[in-house]
Specification:
mainly alpha, 81% helix
Length: 404
Amino acid sequence: MRFWFGQTLSQFGTRIGALGMPVIAVDVLHASNTQVGILGAVSTVSFLLVGLPAGAWVDRWLKRPTMMLAALIRALVVLAIPWLWFAGKLEIWHLYAVATVVGLVTVFFDVAYQSYVPILVPDGDVGRANARLEATSQLATTGGPALSGLLMRVVSAPVLMLGDALSYLVSFGCLALVKDSEVQQRREAGPRRALATEIGEGLRFVRDQPVIRRLVVTMGFSNLFQCMVSTLLPILVLRTIGLDAFMLGVVMTCGSIGGVLGASLAPMLRRRLSDGTVIAGSLVAAAVFVMVNPVAGLTSGDHRNLGTVLLMIAEFCMTAAALVYNVTQVSLRQRLCPKHLLGRMNASIRCVVWGSIPLSALLAGWLSSLMGVVPTLWIGGIGSLLTALPILGIGRLIPVDEHA
C-alpha cells in the first residue's frame, strides 16, 4: 500500500514534467523541430547505452534502495530548471543535460520498479497489482496536464517543474517506509557471477522465450513509430493547429482518462479472453487511433475546434488500448520469467524497446523539418499499425496460468 501510494503521487508530478519540458522548449526557448527531437532523444538514450548492465546491476542490488536513490537524484536535477530560469540563464542545452541525467537514473528506477512488484505480492496477485498501479497512476495524472496548462497562463512553465521535483521527493519518502522480504530472497538466490555472464543470461532468456521474443520485436518497432507521433504532438498542437499550452494539457488529460479506463478494464478482459487475444487486439486498436493525429493536423484556422476534438478522441482511445496492452504484457512477462532473472529480463527488453526511442525522436525532428509535421505523423501512424504483425497468433505460444 505504501509503494502504491507513493507511485500514485509521483505520477502526478511526472505528468507535469512531461508537459513542462516540451512547452519550455517550444514556447519559452523557441526551439526548432530538430531541437525538440534532440530533447526527446537524450531523455531516452540511456536505455540504449546502459540498459543491459543496469539490469544485471539491479539484480545484484536491493531494488528499494536503488529506487530511492534514483528518486532523490531526479528531484535534485529537475530543480535546476526553475533555478536557472529565475537566474535568467536557462538555455536549450540545460534541458538536454537535465533530460539526460533524469533519463539515466530512470533506467535504474524503472528496471527495479518492474522487478519489484513480484517481490511485494504473491504470484497469483501480480496481474491485479500491476493493474491497480497502472490505474491509479493514470488516475493521479488525469488532472495533471490540464491543471499544468491552466497554471501556465498564470506562471511560467519552468516554475511548474518545482511540482515535478516535489513528486520525486514524495516517492523517495514513501519508498523509505516500505517493508519487504528481498534481503531474505537474495540470500536464497545463490552466489554472484561475472557481470558479462549475468547479462548474457538475461539476453538468452529473452531470445529463447518465444512469447517474450515476439513481444520485444513488436514493442521495439511500435515504440519507434509511436514515439515519432508523441515527439511531434506539442508542435502539432502549439504550432500546426495553433492551440495554447492549456489545450495541450487538455489533450494529454484525455489520454490519462483513457489510461484509467484501459488499466481498469485489463483484468476483466484477461478473465474473459486469452492473453494473446487481449495483447494483439489492444495493440491494433491503439495503432488505429494513432492515425487520427495526422487527420487532426489537417485542421487549422476556423477548423481548429474540429482538430481539438479529434486529438482528444485519439488520445483517449489510443491510451486506453495501450494501457490494456501494457498491463497484460507486463504481467505475462513477469509470470513467464524466473524471479532471479526479472531485472535482467526487463533491462534486456528495455534496451531493445526503449533503445529505438532516441532514434525515433531524432527521426521525427529531421523528417518534420524536411517534409512537414503532418506527413511525418502519417508515417508514424501507418508504421504503428504494421507493428502488430509479429504478435498475431501469439496466444498459441502462451502456457496456461496455474494461478488464474
